[in-house]
Write a structure and sequence with these properties.
The complex is a heterodimer of chains A (223) and B (399). Chain A has 223 residues and is of the alpha/beta class. Chain A is built from seven helices and ten strands. In chain B, strands 2-3-10-5-7-6 form a six-stranded mixed beta barrel. The two termini of chain B are 28 Å apart. Classes of the chains: A alpha/beta (223), B alpha+beta (399).
Chain lengths: 223, 399
Amino acid sequence: MIRLEEVWRIYRVGESEVQALKGVSLEIRRGEHLSLMGPSGSGKSTLMHILGCLDRPTRGRYLFEGRDVGTLSDEERSLLRQREIGFVFQFFHLLPRLDALGNVELPMLFAGIPRGERRRRAREALDAVGLSDRLDHRPDQLSGGQRQRVAIARAVVMEPSLLLADEPTGNLDRSSAGEVMELLEALNRAGRTLVVVTHDPEVASRAPRVVRMSDGELLEEEG
Amino acid sequence: MRPGDLLGFAFAALSGHRLRTGLSVAGVAVGISAVVALTALGEGARQYVVQEFTSLGSNLVIVMPGRVETTGAMPYGGVTHDLTIEDAVAIEQRVAGVVRTAPVSVATETVRFGDRGRSVPIIGTSADYRFVRQLQVAAGRFLPEGSSHLAGNEIVLGTKVARELFVGTSPLGKIVRVGPYRFRVVGVLAPKGRSLGFDFDDLVFIPVRTGMRIFNRSSLFRILVETSSTAELAPVRRRVLALLRERHRADDVTVVTQDAVLDAFSSILAVLTLALVGIASVSLAVAGVGIMNVMLVSVAERRPEIGLLKAVGATDRQVLAAFLTEAVVLSSAGGLLGLLAGLGAIRAFVRIYPTFPASPPPWAVAAALGVSVLVGAVFGVVPARRATRLDPVAALTRR
């Protein structure tokens, strides 16, 4: 379902060029659970942004369900993100002024889903991550683990086929991290493709397939 | 994205920064209230002048001796003929569309009764002046009718003159002196007050021929001509000019219609109103820049939020709409508030000066609201575009 063919990503920083990705080729099957490992600066975040259609390859092709993302317009990529891709970030990225329900509703707001249906789906999604008693709590009234669970509810509320988690446990204590990983894995078992970017070997080893990156290149595959 | 959701999103974002939001709203409110209040005052001044003119008689054509133009290099060139009582009679009798005329001669002289004296304008005129200027007589009567009385020794006092010279007693039938001449008081005017800077309570009237004799004048000051309708003003003006050209064998008078004078005043005041609005608009522009500034700060602060909105699938157009809506909500809230403040100020002003018909014209109210929305839309574009141009990756990763 996902195919990267010789993907390069080159940034221009002042006079010099930074080659963040150097000809990465990768195939991810539908419903797969994959860990992307590597030290910081290895290009794993760049790869995740390209997988999430937030960024475009400088060279090479990215096929998402057979569609060449590089040829899509900004608007088409926005719609692709809206319907097919859910993001979970290290720092949660919840809007502090909205309560848990409001944050989960956010993607549906831009999809033009009516208010009543938004409420219902957001409530269901929060219920599914075990936060049905925290619907009207704002982020500053929630613990780190709870915030990440709100973020997961937000990521899946549009029922995307691909879940991208960028260091989802990087800001959490051990027990919260375990809970969050279990949630993500349950979503994967329910049929969603899950890609977890991490530099934590313990988190990475939970996935049946681990891809290592170094200096913009894929090193080897394990498992 | 639905319009209601767009508004809800904007309100939620704005309520997060109450002080900042309040100050931007106040900025627009000040500008809009200034525009509303100043147009109301300007429009009030215009209507006030129109009222004053109408209270001095409508459908008036005014004949003045001399001609408003530059004559040749001859130092004594451009001989003017006197404007005479006979001219006035001729206009009344021979010009179609004329209801009545009143010749006017003016001088300032001291009116004395006993040991009291008062220096006032003395109007020499005829009985018809009362109808032309719409004056009311409180006691006695106005100057007697008929041409044989144009040289009599009657005098009519303004209410203030009567009060000052005859403290508490009736002036009717008493003899007053104007210079060395003696006049018999036949009437006292009802109070009319000041009109266009002229105090109709503080003057006296005597027959016109007597006036010209004692002031030693050979020419009238004015001839007031009342026409049968407003439509007759221009034709009567032409006919009066033609008649006097024939009588004087020269173009040596100036004839203006009252509506021309009124138009002049009206357009001066309209320009004044526009100038006031222009000045007030400057404050509106300042308020707009204020909104732009607040929105730019907001966009800079909310980089991660914008990144997130893009990540969850907001299109560039939706991000643009979201930030533009915020700016428009700010400015139109200010507009509404300013409108209320301006109307309140005008109401307070009218309570203090009840005779001044200050009220904002409907177009000003509509324009104020329209402009306030426009201010947000125009000054919100730059910040909103900046938000859409933000690279989501950079916006999400930089913390």
